Amino acid sequence: MKKRNNKLSLIFTPIVFCLVMCLAVAAAVLPKYDKLSTLAGMFISDTQIDYSSAYENIFVPTKNSGDTVNAKDVEFPGVNKQFGKLKIKGTKVDAKLFYGDGTVPLRNGVGIYGGSFIPGYGKTILVAGHNNTYFNGLKKVKKGDIVKINTSYGNYEYKVTNTAIRDHKDKKAYDLEADHENLILYTCYPFDSLGLTNQRFFVYAEKVKGPKIVGLYE
After folding, report:
1. Spatial separation of the C-alpha atoms in residues 193 and 117, rounded to whole Å
2. Residue 95: what pLDDT?
3. What pLDDT, in 10s, does the model give residues 207-217?
4. What is the DSSP track for 92-110?
5. Is the model's pTM score more than 0.70?
6. What is the Cα–Cα distance from 146 to 184, expressed in whole angstroms?
7. What is the pLDDT of residues 85-132, one digit of tens each?
């Protein structure tokens, strides 16, 4: 009986040892693996999710290109809502316009940064888009090009005045406190890069057409 126990001990001791070593290795490696899987998820997992129905579309085309529109006739968009379209003739930029610049807007089109303003407000409109999808066509933009934005309350045109490549931390690349309506489009640079980069490509444009929203504080 004793010999049998010794034989069993010789069999199970290496197995237990291997299990303990595997657990120790897993404890050391899993935290690093988790970071790597999170990083990979930015480029892989996210693309497997269908965001095409994860938003509300409140955009209804209008012919209004007049001088003013009353605030009471404007349905101000909430975050992740499509309220317009943005197009630049002569480029492939033709995208749905959202309020907000998170995952849902940028998977389905381009989005207005929440700290800026919507067209017609008389302030800075800061619009983001991915460099390898909806804003890839910005590389074709030239000075004098017209950016068209259509919303449910009015149609707008902005004339490109300049383009620039800036560092992603350069806060002088835009002025959110400007006292006049201007449009700024931006995306990661270079255009063929994947993921976030340290540079941004900016397109600057001034308003030339479209109604001003009045009665905002009544």
Report:
1. 29
2. 98
3. 999 999 999 87
4. S-EEEEEES-SHHHHHHEE
5. yes
6. 13
7. 999 999 999 999 999 999 999 999 999 999 999 999 999 999 999 999
| pLDDT tens per residue, range 37-65 | 333 333 333 445 667 778 999 999 999 88
Cβ within 8 Å of residue 167, ≥6 positions away: 198, 199, 200
CA distance linking residue 122 with residue 156, whole number of Å: 12
3-class secondary structure, 213: strand
| Angstrom distance (rounded) from CA 187 to CA 179 | 24
| Token representation of residue 171 | 């806060």
Regarding beta strands 94-99 and 109-112, do their DSSP bridges make them parallel or antiparallel, or are they unpaired? parallel
Looking up tokens 């309506």 gives: 181
Reply yes or no on whether the pLDDT at 74 is more than 60. Answer: yes
The answer to whether the CB of 210 falls within 8 A of the CB of 154 is: yes
Are 141 and 163 spatial neighbours (Cβ–Cβ below 8 Å)? yes
Retrieve residue 8's tokens: 């069993």
Are 134 and 145 contacting, i.e. CB atoms less than 8 angstroms apart?
A: no
d(CA 154, CA 188): 29
Q: Which of 163, 152, 154 is nearest to 205 (CA)?
A: 163
Find out whether 84 and 99 touch, Cβ atoms under 8 Å: no
Determine how β-strand 199-209 pairs with β-strand 182-189: antiparallel
